[in-house]
Write a structure and sequence with these properties.
InterPro entries: Xyl_isomerase-like_sf, Xylose_isom_bac, Xylose_isomerase. It is found in: Cytoplasm. Belongs to the xylose isomerase family. Homotetramer. This protein has 16 helices and twelve strands. With 436 residues, the chain is α/β, with parallel strands linked by helices. It has an eight-stranded parallel β-barrel with strand order 3-4-5-6-8-10-11-12, surrounded by five helices. It has a two-stranded antiparallel sheet with strand order 1-2.
């Protein structure tokens, strides 16, 4: 049923590359088969509730620019927001959505009242999900906006804040399970420090490790079959955050024995802020066996903070999806648009156009990545570069059958004098450009 917010806009359909209709897909064709699977099933698009329906358009130097009929603190407005959200999901044909608890219900005076409000909205969501067929990719808790979390949630010096955050996550996991969510994300927005002058880093890391262990234990206790995800996040808003990047998160998981229980949700913008490329973080997560899901967006490369813009760089997306496809694709994860309109993009149509452009960009990247995989455009040169490691002697060195003395003796005996070989970087960059 139409809410009237989007006027008479019809559901967005695929019209092909020649279309000039801003409210049509040019590259995203959900039913197109790519590497033996429907494009929709590869990309598993999700709309982020917070940026699309909660963010008022502010920035560090100015307040609200958006005027939405659901902005406010009543349950009636929260349900109106849900009506508009599910209408947009349906117009886009987006199969999934994601939310924080604070996005979907107004905060009350007590924890119990806030929890009751989330339960009421969850029931409302269940009806909407049944009606539209839209599913929940993941749920999460906002453990960073309220002033109680100004010094962190799990890492807070006040144990009562730790307890409040634990109760919040417990309830959000319950709701995620009830709505058949496929993952649960822990986003440590303020799990870090502003200054070491008032920070016991070892203590805070242990608190964070204990918190995550509690979450994992509870997941198994209630039979939640979804994946627990951590989202790496560097700096911003704190000087240093404990989940800085994929490598840092993996080291943390290993320390607390959770590397087989928790995976990562990697955001493009966060990868850039950490000084990495998106494909680097994806490749590393796959190499370490902790890849789970992605938040798709981009940063303004002239700004030093997380601008959360919609993706429009096809070569970047092609390299990202290459890393995803080359390692088997998504399992429980997907492509969540953790992206928001620019504060001057005021119209309802802008919400649709932004997502359409992002979905088309991802589709083009996916198709380019799939062609590179089919043609072995990158994998064949890569295999050739490391071919020497397939020899029996090389495998013996790796497997522990040779000591350091054995290896040194063979170098002398056989007169080994290695000659450098070209890495052919420019050639490979040109190969990628042929596909995008």
């Amino acid at each position: 049923m139409s809410t009237g917010f989007f006027g008479d806009i019809k559901p967005v359909g695929y019209e092909g590359p020649e279309s000039t209709n801003p409210l049509a897909y040019r590259f995203y064709n959900p039913d197109e088969i790519v590497l033996g699977k429907r494009m929709e099933d590869h990309l598993r698009f999700a709309v982020a509730y917070w940026h699309s329906f909660t963010w008022p358009g502010g920035d560090p130097f100015g307040g609200q620019t958006f005027e939405r009929p659901w902005f406010g603190d009543t349950m009636e407005q929260a349900k109106r927001k849900a009506d508009v959200a599910f209408e947009m999901f349906s117009l886009l044909g987006a199969p999934y959505f994601c939310f924080h608890d604070a996005d979907v219900r107004p905060e009350a005076d007590t924890f119990a009242e806030s929890a009751a409000r989330l339960d009421e909205i969850a029931d409302y969501f269940a009806g909407k999900m049944s009606e539209t067929g839209v599913r929940l990719l993941w749920g999460t808790a906002n453990l960073f906006s309220n002033r109680r979390y100004m010094a962190g949630a799990a890492t807070n010096p006040d144990p009562d804040v730790f307890a409040y955050a634990a109760a919040t996550v417990k309830h959000c996991i319950d709701v995620t399970k009830r709505l058949n969510g496929e993952n649960y994300v822990l986003w440590g927005g303020r799990e870090g420090y502003e200054t070491l002058l008032n920070t016991d880093m070892g203590r805070e890391l242990d608190q964070m490790g204990r918190f995550l262990s509690l979450v994992v234990d509870y997941k198994h206790k209630i039979g939640f079959t979804g994946t627990i995800l951590i989202e790496p996040k560097p700096q911003e808003p704190t000087k240093h955050q404990y989940d800085f990047d994929v490598a840092t998160v993996y080291g943390f998981l290993k320390r607390y024995g959770l590397e087989n229980e928790v995976k990562v949700n990697i955001e493009q913008g966060h990868a850039i802020l950490a000084g990495h490329s998106f494909e680097h973080e994806l490749a590393l997560a796959n190499a370490l066996g902790i890849f789970g899901s992605i938040d798709m967006n981009r940063n303004d490369y002239q700004s030093g903070w997380d601008t959360d813009q919609f993706p429009n760089n096809v070569p970047e997306m092609a390299l990202a999806y290459y890393q995803i496809l080359a390692h088997g694709g998504f399992r429980t994860g997907g492509t969540n648009f953790d992206a928001k309109l620019r504060r001057q993009s005021l119209d309802p149509e802008d919400l649709l156009v932004a997502h359409i452009g992002g979905m088309d960009c991802c589709a083009r990247g996916l198709k380019a990545a799939a062609r590179m995989i089919e043609d072995k455009a990158l994998s064949a040169p890569l295999e050739a570069r490391y071919a020497g490691w397939n020899s029996a002697e090389a495998q013996a060195m790796l497997s522990g059958q040779r000591s350091l003395e054995d290896i040194a003796a063979r170098v002398v005996k056989d007169g080994i004098e290695p000659q450098p070989k070209s890495g052919r970087q420019e050639y490979l960059e040109n190969v990628v450009n042929r596909y995008v």
